């Protein structure tokens, strides 16, 4: 039986010894249009704010996380409802009292699964300001706990085990226990999903008690999304970018990279690592 968001395709594996025809299980990739309903109760309007290539599933988490990390909403209760208009279109009805800067939103019309920043219309749209600054030195994680995180992440990635084609983002507490995990073909989508899931289940902002672990590299946009949620520590299995390091240092966030086996680098605010 196929897992959700996977599909079977026929393929041929070629080796020096011959050709093997077999069935391969791949992750599904489809576009999701995120629309908002806004305006006063008597003059409601709709607007498309993003089209992102995503793995279907947890679309409500993705939409809420995107609206929050892009600064369109500041709290979960500013989204009155989330509903599917079709399989690949989701409408977020915003609170009528929430002001919406429609000119700024035109900068978010398309993000590709590999990179969200490159889909924005100008560099002016890249920097989103967070209203949260993590508490210095809080919380703290032992290096032994951090060493175990990638293995715990991998064990919880059911779809990745089958397809090998998904990124994951997960929240861990100060003891290194998994709190929330979401998967997606796009690393920025996986991060929006896990932040959106936290907001939808009533987690208080800022998310100052958690570490965010991402399965790939840590680019600027992932650091920005973590900072928007007030997450004090971002850890990545892969490399960070120099702009992600600059963002983390300025935002008061601990940034860990190359987390593999019993080894990792700390690029900013090492006081949270015991």
Keywords:
274 residues; alpha/beta; Cytidine Deaminase, domain 2; four-stranded mixed beta sheet; 7 helices; 12 strands; flat
Element layout with pairings:
Blueprint lengths: L5 E10 L2 E10 L2 E9 L6 E10 L4 H11 L9 E8 L2 E6 L7 H4 L37 H14 L1 H6 L3 E6 L5 E7 L2 H14 L10 E4 L5 H9 L4 E4 L5 H10 L2 E4 L7 E4 L6
Parallel strand pairs: 3-6, 9-10, 10-11
Antiparallel strand pairs: 1-2, 3-4, 5-6, 7-8, 7-9, 11-12
Structural notes for this entry:
With 274 residues, the protein is α/β, with parallel strands linked by helices. It folds into two domains: 30-125, Ubiquitin-like (UB roll) (Roll), CATH 3.10.20; 143-272, Cytidine Deaminase, domain 2. 25% of the residues lie in helices and 30% in strands. It contains seven helices and twelve strands. The chain has helices spanning 59-69, 102-105, 143-156, 158-163, 187-200, 220-228, 242-251; strands at residues 6-15, 18-27, 30-38, 45-54, 79-86, 89-94, 167-172, 178-184, 211-214, 233-236, 254-257, 265-268. The strands form three sheets. Strands 8-7-9-10-11-12 form a six-stranded mixed sheet, sandwiched between helices. It has a four-stranded mixed sheet with strand order 4-3-6-5, with helices on one face. Helix 6 (220-228) links the parallel strand 9 (211-214) and strand 10 (233-236). Helix 1 crosses helix 5 (187-200), helix 5 packs parallel to helix 6 and helix 6 (220-228) runs parallel beside helix 7. The chain starts with 5 loop residues before the first strand and ends in a 6-residue tail after the last strand. The model is unreliable at 108-114 (pLDDT under 50).
């Amino acid at each position: 039986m196929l897992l959700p968001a996977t599909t079977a395709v026929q393929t041929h594996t070629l080796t020096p010894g011959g050709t093997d025809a077999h069935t391969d299980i791949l992750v599904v990739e489809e576009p999701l249009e995120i629309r908002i309903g806004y305006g006063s109760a008597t003059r409601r309007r709709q607007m498309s704010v993003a089209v992102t290539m995503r793995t279907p599933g947890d679309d409500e988490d993705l939409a809420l996380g995107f609206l929050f990390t892009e600064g369109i909403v500041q709290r979960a209760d500013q989204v009155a409802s989330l509903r599917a208009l079709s399989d690949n279109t989701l409408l977020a009805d915003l609170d009528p009292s929430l002001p919406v800067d429609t000119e700024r939103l035109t900068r978010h019309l398309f993000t590709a699964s590999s990179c969200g920043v490159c889909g924005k219309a100008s560099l002016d749209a890249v920097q989103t300001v967070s209203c949260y600054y993590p508490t210095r030195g809080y919380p703290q994680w032992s290096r032994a706990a951090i060493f175990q995180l990638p293995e715990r992440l991998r064990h919880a990635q059911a779809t990745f085990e089958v397809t090998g084609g998904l990124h994951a983002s997960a929240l861990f507490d100060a003891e290194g226990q998994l709190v929330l995990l979401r998967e997606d073909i796009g690393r920025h989508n996986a991060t929006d999903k896990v932040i959106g899931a936290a907001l939808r289940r009533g987690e208080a902002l800022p998310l100052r008690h958690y570490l965010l672990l991402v399965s790939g590299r840590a680019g600027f946009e992932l650091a920005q999304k973590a900072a928007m949620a007030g997450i004090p520590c971002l850890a990545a299995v892969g490399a960070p970018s120099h702009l992600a390091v600059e963002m983390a240092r300025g935002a008061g966030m601990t940034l860990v990279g190359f987390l593999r086996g019993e080894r990792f680098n700390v690029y900013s605010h090492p006081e949270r690592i015991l």
